[in-house]
Amino acid sequence: MSGFEPYALRADGQDAPQGIVAAPVFSWRLRSDRRGARQTAYRVVVAARLPGGGSARAWDSGRVESAETIGVRYGGAPLASSLDYDWTLTVEDETGAVVERVAAFATGIVHPDEWAAAWIGRNPVYRHVALPPQDTDISFTVNKLQPVRRFVRHFDLDVVPAVAKVHASAQGIYRLYVNGHRVGTDELAPGWTEYRDRITYQSWDVTEHLRPGRNSIAALLGDGWYVGFIGTDRRHQAQHYGTEPALLAQLTMDAPDGGRSLVATDESWRETASEILYADLLMGQYEDSRRAQPDWHLPDTDISDWSSAVVVGTDVDRLTPRWTRGSGRP
Fold first, then answer.
1. With 90 as the cut, is the pLDDT of residue 176 above it?
2. Same domain for 103 and 120
């Protein structure tokens, strides 16, 4: 290495985070092999990537004479939802030399009224089939648990969107797929929170998974902490927050001409029980492989005999982003 350069550019302390909804705070680190090297000024420029190509400047800090490398807050116009942003950092050292680096972040759903998705759950017509009697007393407990549900929505595209982002959450735990590709690597998403106060959601770029023609977005939904067993108090072992899990997802697709379309959870989704007869954080997981359907989340799978999902709520006021790493787009 030679000279002087910034590195480890972060927005809200994260490397290229997805899900920013408020003015981000920028930071960076400095390194040099020259003794006494120091930053004397910086400039931050933030620009939105336009779906049709090009960019639109959102904020320019101007040249700021300062050695500060943390706590530089965005001061531009309100951010737009489901959009990629680049931020360009220019630093100046004590010799007057300047170095430029570029990093990125992406936004989630900035305004609650932009959520078109509803919370969906299983069709109440479904009747749970109890497991056969077991030799252990635990069978009376696990017989109360419900199978993990599959949810699928098929949709058609004339062309692949320029940008596609999905925002998802669950009252329970979920695993998301687009055209059979697993979205994200988190296990037990969206994690445990005080659900009565806040529920986190995740955001990902899924542009590379979409294709012209028939597409699918799918999810597995389990009880998790919301419905399942937590703690050891025998008087109240489960269902601390609710009696049924629910799924929420919104796929936002931007066309090259700037048009935006959505696929969101509602009663048009189809659902059915999976081969996972129950999956509980304390009671374990029980599967019947005879019910397995490996291609259930693919767009060509026939789901006509599945039940229609049921809308169980529309409250999105408690949703808060849980940042995921990587913008997914160079």
1. yes
2. no
pLDDT of 140 reads 56
Single residue among 49, 81, 107 that ends a domain in this structure:
107
Among 91, 107, 123, give the residue marking a domain's end: 107
In this model, does residue 268 exceed pLDDT 60?
A: yes
User: What pTM was computed for the model?
Assistant: 0.91
CATH number of the domain that residue 121 is part of: 2.60.120.260
Counted domains in the chain: 2
In terms of domains, do 167 and 259 share one? yes
For residue 259, being part of any structural domain is answered with yes
Tell me which residue range forms the domain holding 92: 4-107
Q: In this structure, are residues 58 and 79 in contact, taking their beta carbons and an 8 Å threshold? A: yes
Instruction: Give the pLDDT confidence score for residue 325 in this predicted structure.
Output: 66
d(CA 189, CA 167): 12
* Residue 308 scores a pLDDT above 50: yes
pLDDT in tens, 47-80: 999 998 899 999 999 999 999 999 999 999 999 9
Q: What is the mean pLDDT of the chain?
A: 91
Same domain, 54 and 172: no
